[in-house]
């Protein structure tokens, strides 16, 4: 393990270490040397860069495809323009109202729609963009198709911002502020949650990330950021024209992040230069301008599919030495009590009156043939599906009916039958996401406790050396261990493992058995679904056997091994030579 500093995150590019102030200083110099035409174009580039930083939160970080982002640009512009013209407000006073209006619109449209999958969400956002445009075109107060005209210039320190040079400097100041705000967001725990939700929202929710809230935050914060460009653009032009907020504008804003690089803030700047600047450069070729622009965009997408300046994840800097380990709970209490758990799917009763108890430090297994109802029982306990009847009490608290992230926060972690990792995130980042079950703060940077927990859990499963590798590149056994480390990061009281040995070779199975036994020593109860009966019998304190949803046997492994109903359930034919073979396997 390499020695690492105890800083939460770091990186290696020039932009990361003070490159932005340098670029802004260069822009200031350019502001002194460029002519009025170039300064006007540069001002528009900055407006689009601000829009790009907004949509980058929604699409780049959280992976929510938004085809109507121009709506927030319009809301910002109209809110500011109307307050200035109708109520005589000063530009600066209109700004917070414009941003708040976009936030409200973001909540109103986002709350009901963000449960939709990406393609449906894209259609809804496209519709929202059109609704806003058609509304402002048809309302009298917004000036109809003519929009708003005669918006007074911005005043700064008593000086009117009227020249292209002055506007460029104003836009640069706006850009710097928005950039700093989005940089802070990118360092927060929320940014990690966004990436996890983008990769697999079900898995993120199951390990404690409040996926819907996290998506809504992306939508609203993106809307607020983009809305800043509205008043700025209105002040630049002195007008608000509804034809500036068409579907084409939304596409242009989206292209800023696609061309620049999804999730990359320097990429947004590059994308804005390409999308706004390139057509201006191509003015020299007049009627072929559109054609050349399209060809160049295609070339960029083909040559740089990740964008001109792709997102480069920061490496998590884990502490060089282990931090203090959490105290294991002293009492060997019952931490999970499931009673009468039933789940019906139409005419099929997948789980029928299941009773299950797990004490701290115990390994309790649930076995049964295919279709016996094991996974359905897990899904009911973890809140992924609602049970039809029954109770689930976790550490004395009734968690039935709670969403998975709240069940996880109450102390119940799980793994999945088919492994669900955040493939593009690193091994350490995957474990970090499991930490949300313990600490749900979103808007603060990573803490030392977060990084200590990641280090401890990786060390526990033997993956510390692989901390910086992408999870998608791990071998099968390591993927299983990583899923367990992620589940342990939230210091769970109960860990549900769904067929952890499926697909593992004998060596991997042995390592897994050792690992599961050690989890008990941490003070957590382990509930295991497993088809490998030999593994179950060797590590379990108690075994529950299901068949067709019903519990047919409960007891210590020795009793279960002798139970003829269990043997029959596995083969279906008791007292037959093959049954003896199954009895052998059960032993
Ligand atoms: N969403 C669903 N809709 C309808 N039926 C379902 C659904 N999920 C599970 N079932 C049914 O419930 C029963 C139990 O399935 P479940 O996947 O829980 O069994 P299992 O014991 O986990 O099986 P396996 O060992 O193959 O994973 C099966 O008959 C299955 O077809």
Automatic annotation (TrEMBL):
<feature type="transmembrane region" description="Helical">
    <location>
        <begin position="247"/>
        <end position="278"/>
    </location>
</feature>
<dbReference type="InterPro" id="IPR027417">
    <property type="entry name" value="P-loop_NTPase"/>
</dbReference>
<dbReference type="Pfam" id="PF12399">
    <property type="entry name" value="BCA_ABC_TP_C"/>
</dbReference>
<protein>
    <submittedName>
        <fullName>Branched-chain amino acid transport system permease protein</fullName>
    </submittedName>
</protein>
<feature type="transmembrane region" description="Helical">
    <location>
        <begin position="166"/>
        <end position="186"/>
    </location>
</feature>
<dbReference type="Pfam" id="PF00005">
    <property type="entry name" value="ABC_tran"/>
</dbReference>
<keyword id="KW-1003">Cell membrane</keyword>
<dbReference type="InterPro" id="IPR001851">
    <property type="entry name" value="ABC_transp_permease"/>
</dbReference>
<keyword id="KW-0472">Membrane</keyword>
<feature type="transmembrane region" description="Helical">
    <location>
        <begin position="12"/>
        <end position="31"/>
    </location>
</feature>
<keyword id="KW-0547">Nucleotide-binding</keyword>
<feature type="transmembrane region" description="Helical">
    <location>
        <begin position="120"/>
        <end position="139"/>
    </location>
</feature>
<dbReference type="GO" id="GO:0015658">
    <property type="term" value="F:branched-chain amino acid transmembrane transporter activity"/>
</dbReference>
<feature type="transmembrane region" description="Helical">
    <location>
        <begin position="91"/>
        <end position="113"/>
    </location>
</feature>
<feature type="transmembrane region" description="Helical">
    <location>
        <begin position="37"/>
        <end position="59"/>
    </location>
</feature>
<dbReference type="InterPro" id="IPR017871">
    <property type="entry name" value="ABC_transporter-like_CS"/>
</dbReference>
<feature type="transmembrane region" description="Helical">
    <location>
        <begin position="290"/>
        <end position="309"/>
    </location>
</feature>
<dbReference type="InterPro" id="IPR003593">
    <property type="entry name" value="AAA+_ATPase"/>
</dbReference>
<dbReference type="InterPro" id="IPR032823">
    <property type="entry name" value="BCA_ABC_TP_C"/>
</dbReference>
<dbReference type="GO" id="GO:0005886">
    <property type="term" value="C:plasma membrane"/>
</dbReference>
<feature type="transmembrane region" description="Helical">
    <location>
        <begin position="216"/>
        <end position="235"/>
    </location>
</feature>
<feature type="domain" description="ABC transporter">
    <location>
        <begin position="336"/>
        <end position="573"/>
    </location>
</feature>
<keyword id="KW-0813">Transport</keyword>
<dbReference type="GO" id="GO:0016887">
    <property type="term" value="F:ATP hydrolysis activity"/>
</dbReference>
<dbReference type="InterPro" id="IPR043428">
    <property type="entry name" value="LivM-like"/>
</dbReference>
<keyword id="KW-0812">Transmembrane</keyword>
<dbReference type="Pfam" id="PF02653">
    <property type="entry name" value="BPD_transp_2"/>
</dbReference>
<dbReference type="InterPro" id="IPR003439">
    <property type="entry name" value="ABC_transporter-like_ATP-bd"/>
</dbReference>
<keyword id="KW-0067">ATP-binding</keyword>
<keyword id="KW-1133">Transmembrane helix</keyword>
<dbReference type="GO" id="GO:0005524">
    <property type="term" value="F:ATP binding"/>
</dbReference>
<feature type="transmembrane region" description="Helical">
    <location>
        <begin position="64"/>
        <end position="85"/>
    </location>
</feature>
